[in-house]
């Protein structure tokens, strides 16, 4: 059994746990809460030296940051006492008089003058408001299932309530359809595969927003080789499932781990699974530098009979296949003009193949975005690999993504609980033959 990938998974999980505390200690990052930073220091991208120093803040820096927050809270309190700032009456949020609703609608990006809450202290300055639709509960959740029954929930809470009264939020749901071309060792060094991809991806807070964690679940299906290939008349059908946990932040350590499952039915039938993880440092400028990996020891056996083009007799195949264990460093940056993002990756596989990949998401209308991606695994060309074209692995995808519940495709890219990982495809789940 290959133990190296699993050791890497454990080390990654340990790093996420260790550095979560470090990111929390750094002023002022709390995940899934901060929408705007008041301090003038954060209005401009940091210098590289400052960004590196911020990775490991000293005890003196943390004490100084805490004193700053206390001083700011004291300043606002003195303003309230002097009558320069009117205190907010939070009694209207009490449930004593029944459920409370936010009146009207606040559009994302609206700048609200005056004090706002930062941690436990009220901070002076500007706050960027989130999206609140008319009729939505103040905390963004639907509680009608606890009282009037599921039928009373409706669409006003941006949720679906199923008979067991479980509130299912559709805020971070995306539906995609498009085309995909791919090739790997399972293509036997002959024709590539081309077909159609369709699926969905969904994210939601994990045990409430206070945890800072998100849960995601997604499925993809592909229908390829609709007219067969040079060595088989069968079409190729695949199913992918992805589920796992993640954590997004404004600045600091960000990452997660998901489980991928694949079912592939062509001139063979096989199933396989892998673990996929990611850990990155998000700078104050919102750019990211990180590392992602896939790891699996799941071996599948292919037993099939094919007739290669030009051959007079059938060829019997009895070969074991395993998911590629891939390791890559990446750089991800937001596209401020349109609200999308793009990522570039470079790395290697356990089988000593090179790796190049990129993916991009660009909103084009209020509810639609274009999603593109590619992956190329560069085969070894040495005495032990006399047919590198048979090991060559690549994937190219072009999809149209629909966000049914987001006010715009751009705003969907600003949610803390949108899925961190794309649902698995042939670009993140590829197979290679084992010895």
Question: Topology, please?
Answer:
Blueprint: H1 4-25, H2 48-54, H3 59-82, E1 111-113, E2 116-118, E3 121-123, E4 126-128, E5 159-161, E6 167-169, E7 172-183, E8 193-205, E9 214-224, E10 236-247, E11 252-265, E12 269-282, E13 288-295, E14 300-306, E15 315-323, E16 326-335, E17 340-349, E18 354-363, E19 368-378, H4 388-391, E20 393-402, H5 409-412, E21 431-433
Antiparallel strand pairs: 1-4, 2-3, 5-6, 7-8, 7-20, 8-9, 9-10, 10-11, 11-12, 12-13, 13-16, 14-15, 15-21, 16-17, 17-18, 18-19, 19-20
**Strand/helix succession:** HHHEEEEEEEEEEEEEEEEEEEHEHE
What is the top-level CATH class of the largest domain? Mainly Beta
Q: Could you report the average pLDDT, rounded to the nearest whole number?
A: 75
State the low-pLDDT regions, or none. 19-43, 96-166
What is the overall number of helices?
5
InterPro entries: DUF6666 (IPR046607)
Keywords: Signal
């Amino acid at each position: 059994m290959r133990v190296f990938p699993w050791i890497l998974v454990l080390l990654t999980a340990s790093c996420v746990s260790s550095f979560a505390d470090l990111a929390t200690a750094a002023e002022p990052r709390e995940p899934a809460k901060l929408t705007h930073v008041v301090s003038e220091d954060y209005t401009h991208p940091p210098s590289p030296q400052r960004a590196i120093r911020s990775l490991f803040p000293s005890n003196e820096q943390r004490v100084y940051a805490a004193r700053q927050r206390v001083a700011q809270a004291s300043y606002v309190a003195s303003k309230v006492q002097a009558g320069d700032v009117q205190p907010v009456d939070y009694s209207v949020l009490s449930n004593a008089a029944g459920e409370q609703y936010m009146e009207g609608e606040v559009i994302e990006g609206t700048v609200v003058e005056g004090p706002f809450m930062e941690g436990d202290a009220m901070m002076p300055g500007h706050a960027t408001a989130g999206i609140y639709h008319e009729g939505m509960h103040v905390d963004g959740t639907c509680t009608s299932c606890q009282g009037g029954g599921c039928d009373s929930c409706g669409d006003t809470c941006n949720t679906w309530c199923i008979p067991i009264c479980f509130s299912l939020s559709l805020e971070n749901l995306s539906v995609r359809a498009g085309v995909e071309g791919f090739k790997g060792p399972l293509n036997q060094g002959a024709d590539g595969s081309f077909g159609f991809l369709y699926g969905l991806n969904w994210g939601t807070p994990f045990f409430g927003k206070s945890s800072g964690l998100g849960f995601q679940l997604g499925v993809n299906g592909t229908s390829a080789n609709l007219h067969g290939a040079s060595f088989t008349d069968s079409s190729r059908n695949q199913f992918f499932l992805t589920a796992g946990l993640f954590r997004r932040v404004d600045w600091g350590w960000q990452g997660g781990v998901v489980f991928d499952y694949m079912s592939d039915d062509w001139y063979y039938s096989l199933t396989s699974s892998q673990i996929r993880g990611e850990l990155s440092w998000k700078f104050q400028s919102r750019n990211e530098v990180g590392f992602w990996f896939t790891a699996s020891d799941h071996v599948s056996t292919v037993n099939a009979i094919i007739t290669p083009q030009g051959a007079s007799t059938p060829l019997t195949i009895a070969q074991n296949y395993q998911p590629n264990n891939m390791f890559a460093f990446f750089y991800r940056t937001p596209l401020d003009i349109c609200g999308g993002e793009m990522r570039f990756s470079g790395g290697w596989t356990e089988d000593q193949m090179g790796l190049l990949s990129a993916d991009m998401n660009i909103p084009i209308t209020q509810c639609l975005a274009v999603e593109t991606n590619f992956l190329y695994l560069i085969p070894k060309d040495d005495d032990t690999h006399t047919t590198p074209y048979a090991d060559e692995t690549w994937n190219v995808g072009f999809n149209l993504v629909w966000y049914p519940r987001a006010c715009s495709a751009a705003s969907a890219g600003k949610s803390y609980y949108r899925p961190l990982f794309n649902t698995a495809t042939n670009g993140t789940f590829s197979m290679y033959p084992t010895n």
